């Protein structure tokens, strides 16, 4: 009798066989052979579960007992290396081995469960521990499943992502005269935006210089427009992200100045690129900025514009930027 296994041979396959004569009440000849394919010395990636070994009945030999009264069966097992970590149909797992059986339980459990091969039971998978990024904010493990939660001010959308609730529109927030509602990520603010003396309100967020129709009578340092803009960004917004563009028609006759109104000497994580306001670094910290962008128009008089040049302050954009503590 010859017995080998894929764990010891170096060939691509081997043949196992058994033959001879059985002595008892009558002479019984038997002969059995089977070819087994191998994958010797194969390296398995560490990210995958190690394969199991199938304890498989390769051949069965009839023998008599000592009294030569009963015909019994002798089974010779052999190890066979399998690519999968799950036992196939007709096998059940015991420890590190798959044993051939007639009425075995399947290794496949329902979704959200995994087979415990020590107890033979299907046990709940804690998805929150095994997949730490499965939820954007908070994960709660449940029997056979899990549930994601969003922080206050957000709701779960159909894709399972946390989506900001616009409280200003949904709850119709009224902040009062000369104030406006600023929807931030997960909250809102009521912001004062009064028009200075000498200006009239053009719309909810913009002020217009009263002497605009008689521009020559206005002081040059007075902007024609004061426009308030509100931008909510999430934490970890990437660098070089454009989030606001100035509506300027004639770029060749315009100059722009940007500074932080509340902290003039503090370096900004934003830059002006042409007419685009964009990030110049990843936004790691939750913070609120109040910026002013000064837009100047270069006015020309006469035939020779180079001899009659005057720069006039056209618009001041007051931009409040809120960076959320959340990354979504």
From TrEMBL:
<keyword id="KW-0732">Signal</keyword>
<keyword id="KW-1015">Disulfide bond</keyword>
<keyword id="KW-0325">Glycoprotein</keyword>
<feature type="domain" description="EGF-like">
    <location>
        <begin position="148"/>
        <end position="162"/>
    </location>
</feature>
<dbReference type="GO" id="GO:0005509">
    <property type="term" value="F:calcium ion binding"/>
</dbReference>
<dbReference type="InterPro" id="IPR001881">
    <property type="entry name" value="EGF-like_Ca-bd_dom"/>
</dbReference>
<dbReference type="InterPro" id="IPR000152">
    <property type="entry name" value="EGF-type_Asp/Asn_hydroxyl_site"/>
</dbReference>
<dbReference type="InterPro" id="IPR000742">
    <property type="entry name" value="EGF"/>
</dbReference>
<dbReference type="InterPro" id="IPR018097">
    <property type="entry name" value="EGF_Ca-bd_CS"/>
</dbReference>
<dbReference type="InterPro" id="IPR049883">
    <property type="entry name" value="NOTCH1_EGF-like"/>
</dbReference>
<dbReference type="Pfam" id="PF07645">
    <property type="entry name" value="EGF_CA"/>
</dbReference>
<dbReference type="InterPro" id="IPR009030">
    <property type="entry name" value="Growth_fac_rcpt_cys_sf"/>
</dbReference>
<dbReference type="InterPro" id="IPR050751">
    <property type="entry name" value="ECM_structural_protein"/>
</dbReference>
<keyword id="KW-0245">EGF-like domain</keyword>
<keyword id="KW-0677">Repeat</keyword>
<protein>
    <recommendedName>
        <fullName>EGF-like domain-containing protein</fullName>
    </recommendedName>
</protein>
């Amino acid at each position: 009798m010859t017995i080998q296994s894929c764990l010891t041979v170096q060939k691509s396959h081997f043949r196992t066989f058994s033959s001879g004569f059985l002595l008892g009440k009558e002479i019984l000849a038997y002969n059995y052979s089977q070819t087994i394919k191998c994958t010797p010395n194969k390296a398995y990636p560490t990210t995958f579960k190690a394969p199991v070994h199938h304890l498989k009945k390769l051949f069965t030999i009839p023998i008599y007992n000592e009294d030569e009264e009963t015909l019994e069966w002798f089974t010779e097992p052999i190890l066979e290396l399998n690519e999968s970590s799950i036992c196939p149909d007709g096998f059940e797992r015991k420890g590190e081995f798959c044993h051939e059986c007639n009425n075995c339980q399947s290794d496949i459990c329902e979704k959200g469960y995994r087979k415990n091969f020590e107890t033979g039971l299907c046990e709940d998978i804690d998805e929150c521990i095994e997949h730490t990024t499965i939820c954007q904010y908070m994960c709660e493990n449940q029997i056979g499943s899990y549930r994601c939660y969003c922080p206050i001010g957000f709701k779960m959308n159909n894709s399972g992502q946390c989506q900001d609730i616009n409280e200003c529109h949904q709850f119709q927030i009224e902040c009062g005269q000369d104030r406006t509602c600023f929807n931030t990520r997960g909250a809102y603010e009521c912001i004062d935006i009064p028009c200075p003396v000498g200006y009239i309100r053009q719309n909810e967020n913009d002020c217009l210089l009263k002497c605009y129709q008689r521009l020559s009578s206005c002081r040059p340092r007075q902007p024609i427009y004061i426009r308030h803009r509100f931008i909510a960004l999430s934490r970890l917004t990437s660098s070089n992200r454009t989030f606001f563009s100035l509506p300027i028609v004639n770029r060749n006759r315009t100059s722009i100045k940007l500074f932080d109104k509340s902290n003039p000497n503090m370096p900004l994580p934003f830059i002006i690129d042409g007419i685009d306001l964009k990030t110049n670094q990843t936004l790691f910290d939750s913070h609120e900025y109040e910026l002013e962008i000064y837009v100047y128009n270069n006015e020309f008089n006469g035939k020779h514009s180079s001899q009659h040049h005057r720069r006039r302050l056209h618009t001041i954009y007051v931009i409040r930027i809120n960076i959320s503590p959340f990354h979504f």
